Task: structure prediction
Amino acid sequence: MSDDAKKQVALLNNQAFDYSENENWGKAIECCNKALALCSENKLPAETRARILYNKAMVLIKMGDVDRGTEVLKTASDLVPDDVHFLNDCGLLCYNNQCFCEAGFYYSLAERTGQLDGALLNNIGVLNFTNGEYEKAREYFERAVAADSGNSDARLNLADTIEVLEGGK
Result:
């Protein structure tokens, strides 16, 4: 593992992000693919490959190729199946792009790690709320607040959920 390879991978990853921000999808994918090739050649850690695949998936989803993007995201999550933060990020990416079933898949994997924090619990609650499962959402928001009493998002989400459950009283 050379430091030069790590630097080159980081540079390509940053370039991919910049290209995607400017909606230059082809260049973004090209940078991701070059970074992935360098990872393979230099036997860089699975975590590094997973993050690059995540970025590639994000580009694919942003450009409208949701099926391919979610396939790439699955490959990425398979590399780091116990990284709760990575799985939470995958769920959030899917949720933000209205891939609710896929978001649930990643949140479920994250939950199975047993490493639940307030942010993850809140995100799962938001997904349940979006799906109209208000009782489940309430449970997750309550758990999120218990895990992190300073989580203002979870507190507001809990209040909104209670209001829905009580019929807007």
